[in-house]
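Quick one:
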Amino acid sequence: MRFVELEPDLVRLMSGAPASVAHDEARIAVKACGICGTDLHLLHGMVMPPGASYPVRPGHEVAGVVTEIGMGVSEIVVGDAVVLHPLAPCGICEACRSGAEQRCDSAKILGIHSAGGMADETVWPASRLVKSGELPFEQAALLPDAVATAWHALSRANVSPGGTLVVLGAGGVGTHVLQLAHAIDPSTTLAAVVRSRASADRVSELNLSTVLEG
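Output:
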């Protein structure tokens, strides 16, 4: 199988033997993988989270088709179209038990701690797969990170019906916040503060107000 491997200022296209599948894991043939800002930080060199080191096999915005499942897997079957949740938490710490698994200090990050989706295939815990149905793979790949993060931020903001929401920065996550907010309540007044003309033009195409800073 082919996969991308990177370290600061160096990207390599490699090939090697496929990984084995544990009893609680699944093998996924990758159909789409996004390039996130984190991947660019990895390329330019960044402080790695505990337990991770260079080189890495990146890609955490992944959609594909299940091609093999472990003996203990029952929630999905071979042939399912899925997206991969990029975090695999321990499930037993206080954060996990309280429902805040995103704060798990032992969580493994797809594409940093574990081989990611910039590859022909990847292996990931079956419990961290979500069926994506007939959604196009290139759209489904965005859901677990850029869209889910935006949804979480919007939920925390708890904007009142017909209220006002200003997003500081409108990259992938910020733009999704604006789009989700409009879809949920078209009466919400939305605006974005951005730093580049390109971002301002992109947000303006969504018929939203922008403030170009600096």
